[in-house]
Structures are given as C-alpha cells and as structure tokens.
Amino acid sequence: MPYLRLFLGIKRFFFFGLISLLIASTTQARPIKILIFSKTNGFRHKTIPAASVALKTLAQQNNWELTFTEDSLMFSHYSSLKHYKAVLFLYATGKVFGTEEEKVFAKYIEKGGSLVTIHTGTDCEQGWDWYMNLVGAKFKNHPKQQQARFTVTDSPHGATNLLPKGWLHFDEIYNFAAPVSVDEHVLLSVDENSYTGGTMGVTHPIAWCRFYKKGRVFQTALGHTDACYTDKDFLNHIVGGIRWALGK
C-alpha cells in the first residue's frame, strides 16, 4: 500500500505538472495584437509598402499579430479597440479622426492602450490639442534628406540600447514648431552641427517616449526612406520602441 500511494502521488504530480506546463505554453504562445493605422489626409509617404513588409517580418520574430487598416471607423468603438495592445501610426498624416473616433482613442490611451508613431506622428491631427499634447511636438518643416549624427540620450532604453552612441544615419529630419514637451522622455537627439537645415538649436530631440495616465507613447521622427527598413540599426530602434510600448 505505501508503494501504491507513492506511485499514485508521483502520477498525480506529473499529470498536474504537465497540465500546468501546457497552460503556460499556450499563454506564452498567444500573439500580441497591434493595430497598424496608415490613413493619410496630408502628405502620403511612398514608404508605407516597404514599412508594412518589414513590420510583418518583425511580427513573426516577436510574436505580434498585426492588423493593417486605413479605416478610421476601426476607432469608433472602445469595445473593439481595447483588444489591441498597441496602435501604431504608420505615416498617418493630416486629420484622420472624427469627433467620436477622437473620444474613443483618448479613452483607449487613458485606460492603458499604447501608441507608437513612426516618422509622421507629429504631422497628424495637428488641430486636436489632446493629441498634440500626447505626442509632444508639432511638425513644422524639414530640410533635404541627408546623413546626420544622432546622439543616444537614454542608453538602457530598448529603442536605443543597440544603437551606436554617435549613430550616423541618412533620413529626413524634422524640425518642430516649438521645443518638445517636457512631459516627454527624450531617447535620441540629432546633432545639428552634423547636417544642414536644423532649426531647433543645441537640443533637438528626434525620438522620445512617455507615460500618459495608464497608457504609453513611443514616438520617432525617423523612417522616411525605404532604405530604413533594411537598416539593422533603424529596425532595432523600431522594435525596441514597440516592445517598450507593449510593456516589455
């Protein structure tokens, strides 16, 4: 009898251990849902297709489930939007939301949703004060595309920890209408002495992040060219920013 009880105890231990392992592996395998939004009512970037292809590859590597849309009605109901862990504005420009979509999106962020913007986040919804405050700056203009030196200002952050300290990168470099909001945590700045056409002075942030109530925001003004999406450093920058926004 003692041996039988021991045998049954071991059997139960392995059975429940196997069940726990299966549950854990199922939970880990569940992909993280991200909504990719690329509606344009302003300048439309030709880079959208190349960026979309690259994001699909990155999604496979990081267990993300992407939904691509240019339909602002996706933002009409919080009950649907809340299922996405993050919303990524992929070259969205101009006024893209109506009043109801604005209310739903604000609720989504305030209740814990995340926003990632690539390149044009500051050139989107410029007439919506809440969004402008959220994203931290308003696009003004840019000089010709050229190589510049970028300085990492937060080395441990996922969006910058794999970048060279003085990163040389070719891109379209935005100037903003005013200094970036003090509510934003600057991750990457551009050295205006390394290129021509900068108007921000000694401090010229180019990528930053912030917490907003329960939500998170990661914004980078880089990514204008197709070549960015074959650039390992730029892709590391994007992946790190997305992962931070997802709470990783």
Task: Describe the structure in your own words.
This protein is an alpha/beta fold and 248 residues long. It folds into two domains: 29 residues; 215 residues, Rossmann fold. Helix content is 32%, strand content 25%. It has six helices and eleven strands. The strands form two sheets. A nine-stranded mixed beta sheet has the order 2-1-3-4-11-10-9-6-7. Strand 10 and strand 11 form a beta hairpin. It is globular and about 50 Å long. The termini are far apart. About 6% of the residues have low confidence.
Keywords:
2 domains, two-stranded antiparallel sheet, 248 residues, Rossmann fold, 9-stranded mixed beta sheet, single chain, alpha/beta, 11 strands
